[in-house]
């Protein structure tokens, strides 16, 4: 992926990126989902590379961005604390000003690729606001990693009073929060698109199976109950496509952060929920073979489970949506 | 009536024009109604629209319509739906008028179209028969040519507000020997023709929304056929196409949802997290349905056609409508089973009316089971048995 | 019904009642539901007559109970205030001690049969607790009545400082609350049973229709999708039967008020929810004819809507159940 | 082993006896597990049960069972299920042992039953074949008599933990000319017979829960048939009857629900009204399923029989189990997709394991679609097409 320059997806061309628009990014991720390509493009391109590209540190942008885009330097984003949630109030690590810059402590949880990258973008809370740091000396970071359903991993990073020089600040307390929210929401759109690709592929595989598989002397796709269940999945997928593209269009039209958050949460909620429904019913359509790890379907099952959770699952996004709805119009 | 090229108007200006007119002229009693309003209630407002030349958005300008292109059509429906404007008995406009413009004889066009536009004629549709249900082509009402007249005998049912209609268009069997769809013709009749009897049917909601229409040796002029003899099925299919933007419209669900929101505010339900959770699930479904409806309408704009997508919209809109009214009935609490509107704080809302009125949506215009069969075959290419 | 002595259902035989056990009452109400008998037995027998029978006023029990049981004196229960809910904290009317007894003011809402009875059992809050009164002089009560879906009615009673003598007290502040809760919960069991009878009948009517009605040259009951939907209703009914009988058995085994409330709320919740599901799908099975008021099905549709709401709908009982669950074991 | 008449014991005493034994002897690693445990893990505990004489509750006392009546059987299962005790590979006990007691030859009983009780033999079931699925009778593995042996060729699939088994009972086609169900016999074979190969199949959960079993000119002694030749289908149907109290048991859903509750407590989810609402919906469904299960079991006690009711229990229990695990996976949040148990406060729980392990319940033992077909025909008397 990096070889194709895709890590520079949303990065302007003048900064060696691809300069794609969000719609193109979504379309690409839909294809990635369809093919079940297990590349961490969301993490490297939309979380890490975008952080450096949109951050206010020219030196890092000049020195590090080309490496990230070319794939020579892999990076991830670490931010989430003990109390999980979707917005920047849930940042885990804490930064305190020191003589030589900043001292970081605390834990960032559920960091994708935690133990297999060269550098971290770390978000940390300070008394002035949220900062983002670039960190490629990992000697004082302890990592506790866990394997995920789809073969990838995530881990908790613990910072034990690590000192970071001012030159490593990507975003200062004034801009950190809004940058982090932006990074996360854009990444959620791509994850939703990947889920959409996943579910389409699972439906297609299921339809093929239903047409071919025979029981009681007839193709099982001829049973009305299975037909209607397939139709209901198809409808779910159509609604998910709408939700995804509404998010894309809203953002491309320059929505404010609140409107962006609402439309992104709607999309991620819908796509996560529909994704899981589709794989669950996909397993049922396939019968016993659908429950094995030996059949291609399993790739999509595992991947959907991970994507449906990554950057907030349906339940978390529904809760965020509820909060935004109540504050924006529920009481009006 | 000045001749305006609405299609040349900027979208927002066009929308504002309609929005302002509705706000000014359309009475509250015709907005956000959870029931089908009758002709006498809605006639004054309909005449106002007629006077403005805004009654027939899809008709060509030369026939007195607005001649809207698909983009403006979508906007037109969007504005009327969002404003919760009740629908008049508009089968003359959206169905038979459209069909006559395409297939009617010159005499038919000249006679019927102005009368429809002036609200002199109100049309109803004679399709279903007892026993035919979703299997429309099994209809048995027959018309036999006798000199200059068709003699019609039989019975129609589920004819929407036939008691208000001056005219009926219907499918009749003109060749009993032909196969199912092939011996059917498309006939027009005045409702006051001797031999036609109308019996209203009371619905669960207590409204006389449908009728039975009986035909007893009814003599109808020979020329009252649209298209050729025994080609009624083609006419019916064409008519179906005209409904493509209305049958799966989010209108009803949106109107009910507006009332649900009002009820929730009055009852303070937005402080209840469990209600909010149920409410936003419906909201998301409505948003995604509206979005999907617009996406499909966009495809029409760009020259695409709406085939089975119509089935998706029909399924989603009717089931969503029911879910909205089910939640409304439930959160209305002890007032849920009240007949007619009751007071919730400052609002007067009729949850039971909504609940009942949403029931037939999954049954009529091809039941949702039929729609799913269609999608399974036509889109998902599932094998027949 | 009164002629058959059924108004004395749960009243001991020595008090001229039938002396039935709750199981028998439930079985009777299931049959009433099946036949869609529109008699207000729950109101007269289980709310009014039981109130007098279990109250502490011997005079009223002697003078009034026989009349209520024989049907010569019809009565209902008035208790619910503005803030609707299921337990006695929601009592509407207020009682203040006066020289000549008690003075009642405030409103009791949604009183069944409000404008067609001879007497009211009125629950009212006082500074000492909840009292129950017997009231058969209605001259100073204003009634605002509304027609319901099934042809019955309910109304709001407004008391404008009505004076009631001490002899009309059925339950004093020490016993009023527990008696009222008991009356309501027992009545809810009977309503649940009536709902169960209703839904069984609707399923039976639907099955008959599915077998007979033909479309596309075959019986519509042969379509797999309709078959499976009918099966799902059948399962719902089986679960509702279980919930109902668990409530009956729990109460008959002498459960404390909390256990009674939980099991009754579970039953009323399940039966209300299943009842509405069954009538909704019943309408769908019948097609257009199911949407008319001319077909017998409509009797059950209207009745189910009223019963599903009466004494608390599914949502209200789920909320009560949640509260009880959390306080009893959620945190343990 | 002292001879105790368990049926004469008061119910509570009987339950306490089992409960105490489980609390004392059954290791935590075998309780509330969201996966199928393998034989080597559960063997020590199973031997303890065997020693107590409590391994075979349904077997008659003369064969070394507990000889429980139906009331005590229900109590037995109830206690083991509520305690979340994992099930050993118990096909010897609950299936083939029961069948041999009823239909086995004296020699078969004498040889096999003691070995099963002593845990020397572990049985697996050879029913499904590639392509047969829910249509079991379409099986093609064939056995041809050659002197004193049946020569078996073919393939079985979805054979639960065949890699742990010493013996297999299976359905084979012994008369290829007969109609579907009629040419099938019921055969027993040692797994170490030359020509039998086992290939484990990895499930979504990463477990080797099922196997393929290949038969390549496998020679099986002629007398290893149960019942008569070509009457295997009757044997299979009898076996199905033995499962009547286990197939729709609330066990799995209850175990998963226990873990969900623990997880919810550790995460403080009972302070979230939306979660509580979802949780109590499941709780009510479980309570009502347990109640329905007991109600049907009661009917058995009073001499009734369980026919299609089994299908109801199977449908409800398997779908409920899935819903519980779906909620668990979701509220586990970011830890949901973790492979293997992870820590939630003080608890170690494996939501993903539960989620996967609950998947096949709606597929095996007659898919839920088949069960609904059965109910529609047998109970609701819906017409065939």
TrEMBL record, chains B, D:
Q: In terms of domain of life, where is this protein from?
A: Bacteria
- The Acyl-CoA dehydrogenase/oxidase N-terminal domain covers 12-118
Q: Which keywords appear in this protein's UniProt record, sorted alphabetically?
A: FAD, Flavoprotein, Oxidoreductase
GO CC annotation: plasma membrane
Question: Needs which cofactor?
Answer: FAD
Domain (Acyl-CoA oxidase/dehydrogenase middle) spans 124-218
Annotated Acyl-CoA dehydrogenase/oxidase C-terminal domain ranges read 230-380
The Swiss-Prot or TrEMBL record annotates one GO molecular function as: flavin adenine dinucleotide binding
The record ties this protein, via InterPro entries, to:
Acyl-CoA_Oxase/DH_mid-dom, Acyl-CoA_Oxase/DH_mid-dom_sf, AcylCo_DH-like_C, AcylCo_DH/oxidase_C, AcylCoA_DH/ox_N, AcylCoA_DH/ox_N_sf, AcylCoA_DH/oxidase_NM_dom_sf, Mycobact_Acyl-CoA_DH
Keyword hit for NADP = no
What family does this belong to?
Answer: Belongs to the acyl-CoA dehydrogenase family.
Q: What is this protein called?
A: Acyl-CoA dehydrogenase
């Amino acid at each position: 992926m990096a070889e194709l320059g895709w890590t520079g997806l949303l990065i302007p061309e003048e900064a060696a990126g691809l300069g794609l628009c969000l719609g193109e990014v979504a379309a690409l991720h839909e294809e990635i989902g369809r093919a079940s390509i297990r590349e961490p493009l969301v993490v490297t391109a939309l979380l890490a590379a975008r952080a450096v590209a949109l951050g206010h540190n020219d030196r890092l942008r000049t020195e590090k961005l080309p490496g990230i885009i070319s794939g020579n330097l892999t990076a991830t984003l670490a931010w989430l604390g003990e109390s999980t949630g979707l917005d920047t109030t849930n940042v885990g690590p804490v930064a305190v000003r020191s003589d030589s810059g900043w001292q970081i402590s605390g834990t960032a949880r559920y960091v994708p690729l935690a133990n297999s990258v060269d550098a971290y973008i770390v978000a940390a809370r300070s008394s002035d606001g949220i900062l983002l740091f670039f960190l490629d000396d990992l000697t004082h970071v302890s990592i506790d990693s866990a394997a995920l359903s789809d073969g990838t991993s995530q881990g908790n990073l613990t910072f034990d009073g690590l000192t970071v020089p001012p030159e490593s600040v990507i975003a200062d307390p004034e801009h950190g929060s809004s940058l982090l929210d932006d990074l996360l929401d854009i990444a959620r759109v791509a994850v939703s698109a990947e889920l959409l690709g996943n579910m389409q592929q699972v439906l297609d595989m299921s339809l093929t199976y239903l047409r071919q598989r025979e029981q009681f002397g007839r193709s099982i796709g001829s049973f009305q109950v299975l037909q209607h269940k397939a139709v209901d999945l198809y409808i779910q997928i159509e609604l998910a496509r709408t939700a995804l593209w509404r998010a894309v269009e809203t953002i491309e039209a320059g929505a404010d952060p609140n409107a962006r958050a609402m439309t992104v949460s709607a999309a991620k909620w819908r796509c996560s929920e529909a994704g899981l429904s589709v794989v669950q019913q996909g397993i049922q359509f396939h019968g016993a073979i659908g429950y094995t790890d030996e059949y291609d379907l399993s790739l999509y099952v595992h991947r959907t489970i991970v994507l449906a959770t990554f950057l907030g699952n349906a339940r978390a996004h529904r809760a965020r949506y509820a909060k935004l709805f109540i504050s924006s119009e529920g009481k009006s | 009536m000045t001749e305006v090229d609405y299609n040349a108007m900027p979208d927002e200006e066009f929308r504002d024009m309609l929005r302002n007119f509705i706000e000014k002229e359309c009475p509250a009693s015709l907005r956000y109604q959870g029931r089908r309003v009758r002709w006498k209630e809605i006639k004054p407002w309909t005449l106002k629209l007629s006077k403005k030349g805004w009654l027939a958005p899809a008709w060509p300008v030369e026939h007195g319509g607005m001649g809207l292109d698909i983009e403006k059509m979508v906007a037109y429906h969007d504005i009327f739906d969002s404003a919760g404007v009740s629908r008049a008995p508009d089968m003359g406009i959206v169905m038979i008028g459209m069909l006559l413009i395409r297939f009617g004889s010159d005499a038919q066009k000249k006679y019927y179209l102005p009368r429809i536009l002036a609200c002199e004629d109100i049309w109803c549709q004679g399709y279903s028969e007892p026993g035919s249900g979703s299997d429309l082509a099994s209809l048995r009402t027959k018309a036999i040519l006798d000199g200059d007249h068709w003699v019609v005998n039989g019975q129609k049912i589920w004819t929407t507000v036939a008691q208000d209609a001056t005219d009926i268009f219907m499918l009749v069997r003109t060749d009993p020997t032909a196969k199912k769809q092939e011996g059917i013709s498309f006939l027009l009749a005045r409702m006051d023709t001797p031999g036609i009897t109308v019996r209203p049917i009371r619905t669960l909601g207590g409204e006389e929304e449908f009728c039975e229409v009986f035909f007893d040796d009814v003599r109808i002029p020979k020329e009252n056929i649209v298209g050729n003899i025994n080609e009624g099925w083609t006419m019916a299919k064409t008519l179906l196409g005209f409904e493509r933007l209305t049958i799966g419209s989010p209108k009803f669900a949106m109107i009910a949802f507006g009332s649900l929101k009002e009820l929730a505010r009055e009852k303070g339900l937005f402080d209840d997290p469990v209600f909010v959770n149920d409410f936003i699930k419906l909201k998301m479904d409505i948003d995604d349905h509206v979005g999907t409806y617009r996406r499909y309408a966009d495809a029409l704009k760009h020259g695409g056609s709406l085939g089975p997508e119509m089935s998706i919209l029909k399924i989603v809109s009717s089931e969503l409508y029911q879910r909205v009214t089910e939640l409304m009935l439930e959160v209305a609490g002890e007032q849920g089973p009240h007949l007619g509107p009751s007071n919730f704080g400052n609002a007067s809302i009729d949850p039971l009316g909504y609940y009942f009125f949403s029931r037939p949506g999954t049954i009529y215009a091809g039941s949702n089971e039929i729609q799913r069969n269609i999608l399974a075959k036509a889109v998902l290419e599932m094998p027949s048995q």
